[in-house]
Amino acid sequence: MLFKRSVQRYGRTPEPDTPFHRAGQLWDERIGSARVQARNWRLMAFGGLALTTAMSGALVWQSLQSRVTPYVVEVDRLGEARAISEAEAGYKPTDPQISWHLARFIEKVRSVSLDPVLMRRDWLSAYDFATGRGALFLGDYARSANPFGAIGQKTVSVQVTSVVRASEQSFQVKWVETAFDRGAPAGTSHWTGILIVKLKPPASAEVLRKNPLGLYVDAIDWSREIEPAASPTAPPPTAPRATQPLPEGQTIAAPDAGAAVSQIPSTPENRQ
């Protein structure tokens, strides 16, 4: 049997239990528990702050949600309801609605009235339906044509005959203009125009009152149609007049005699 000398291993030797060691452990327990409690309170505070923020955001979002569903009621001239539907946020006007507004736009711009106040109101209303580019065209047309210079002498009546879609963003408008000079008809002309439109939702209550559909005319190009030449027509033939028998005692002079028509009564004295 071999005898080995025991080797002292200081790392595995338990620390001696001394009063200094016990005091250090007690101090560490007191300070450590306080630090742990402070950390837990901080976590609770941050959690409460996050929960409060989330609840506040939810309340704000709920307050912004409308509980009232708006409806649009379409009525006729007599006030009778024709169609009822819910109001849509992204509503897009139909072609008949766009056509009606474009026809009114042409009537306001091309018509000439005897009342300058009425013409000014129509032109201001037309500017509400024009973009910046369309407003430049209207200004150039007003300066060149000078529709306000003939007020009181000349009037122009506009009748829109058709409004059809030409492309995705343009419409073709045809109308007839009848001019009057001091109340007397002065001629009729046919016109054709291409209008490029844009849709932009109203951004304020004032714009909503003036242009509820958000329809704007961006470009205008119109021209007068060539009038067909009137073909000469021959006068209609005159029907022969029926001849009636002359009463007894009346004679008609021949055309080359130059004498007037004489009437000789048929009496017994004249016969003798």
Write up what this structure looks like:
- The chain is an alpha+beta fold and 272 residues long.
- It has a domain of 134 residues: Roll (Nuclear Transport Factor 2, Chain: A), CATH 3.10.450.
- The strands form 2 sheets. It has a 4-stranded antiparallel beta sheet, covered by helices on one side. It has a two-stranded antiparallel sheet with strand order 1-2.
- Strand 3 and strand 4 form a beta hairpin.
- The longest helix is centred in the N-terminal third of the chain and has 46 residues.
- The protein is rod-shaped and about 165 Å long.
- The C terminus is likely disordered.
- It comes from Sphingomonas psychrotolerans.
- This is Conjugal transfer protein TrbF.
- Its main location: membrane.
- InterPro entries: NTF2-like_dom_sf (IPR032710), TrbF (IPR035658), VirB8 (IPR007430).
Radius of gyration: 50 Å
Distance between the termini: 209 Å
Which topology of the domain at 91-224 does CATH recognise?
A: Nuclear Transport Factor 2, Chain: A
Biggest sheet details: 4 strands, antiparallel
Looking at this structure, what is the CATH superfamily of the domain at 91-224? VirB8 protein
Give the integer mean of the pLDDT values. Answer: 79
What strand order characterises the main sheet? 3-4-5-6
User: Could you say which structural class the secondary elements and strand pairing correspond to?
Assistant: alpha+beta
Tally of DSSP β-strands: 6
InterPro entries: NTF2-like_dom_sf, TrbF, VirB8
Organism: Sphingomonas psychrotolerans
Domain Bacterial virulence protein VirB8: 22-225
Main location: membrane
